[in-house]
Amino acid sequence: MSDSSEKRPTLRSLAEITGLGISTVSQALRGSPEIALETRKRVQLAAQQAGYRPNRAGVRLRTGKSNVITLVLNAQDGGSGFFANMIYGISDSLKGSPYHLVVTPYSLSDPMEPIRYIVETNSADGVIFSRTQPDDPRVRYLVENNFPFTTHGRTDMGIDHSYFDFDNEAYAYEALRTLKAKGRKHIALISPPPSLTYYHHTLKGFERGLADFELTGFMLANANTDSEISELQHAGLELSQRKDPPDGIVCVSSSVALALISGLGKGHLVIGHDYDLVAKPMTDLVSMSQPEIIGIDEDFRRAGQELARMVIERIAGTNTFVLQMVDQPKLR
Hints:
By secondary structure, the chain is of the alpha/beta class. The protein is built from 13 helices and twelve strands. The chain has helices spanning 11-18, 22-29, 37-50, 56-63, 82-94, 112-121, 137-144, 168-181, 197-212, 229-240, 254-266, 284-289, 300-315; strands spanning 68-74, 100-106, 126-129, 149-152, 163-166, 186-190, 216-219, 248-251, 276-279, 294-297, 324-327, 330-331. Helix 1 packs across helix 2 (22-29) and helix 2 crosses helix 3. The N and C termini lie far apart (61 Å). Mean pLDDT is 89; it is low at 1-5.
């Protein structure tokens, strides 16, 4: 009786299918730049059609590589479709490559723990992570250990590294421009947590927009996008009870906006009448449940695609300065 493993496609059988040498096939599957792009695509297509799967244990023994990309995410990142769409996007870019994705959760109490584990155990060839801080110890550690990575978000620590980010300064500024056009004059900002880099970008755009568009405004002191739903609802109720309630609101999370709108409603303020609200990113579900929200889109699937592409290029040795991208806001 024949062993089923003998029926599995191998490098030798792919070489016979494509008419190429085994070494060429192997390099093409690894995405080697020494092999012409068209040849790489032809081999990868043949491998996909034949159902070829590399023997990971053998690959690691031969090359020292795991062929793993690890996405390090916190459960806090699950809102607004971030988690799922990021994974879909990364999977899009890894399709046809030798790499596969592993998602590693972590606790906000120790964001360094999974990074240290990955580096010390060599359990991945590259890392993607989010929630960057202006002075991020994860970035410093990975650079010091010469470990390939890219981040969703920027830092401000004088270390050049690969990243994909959304322009949150431009988002806050354009949100205020939109509210000004709606005739709104007194604006509240629900910001990210102050520890994160994009908090500073958002606040800068908000303050610049207030000045340029001659608006008044303030940032919520008792809630941010990491707050619990009950806290956000209470913050909305408190906004409605102010002597000078805002007639415009800028929020950097559409899921957070829903909780805030609920609290404002308890205080008898109606969106689209008493106030307008700009939020991002907009999902179809949020748009259907609250069509009065003024949406600005962020394409997390594209972000995942770009981050995967960048980390693969970092593994290949591409310089970080050509692997940096800031995406502009798009009004829905």
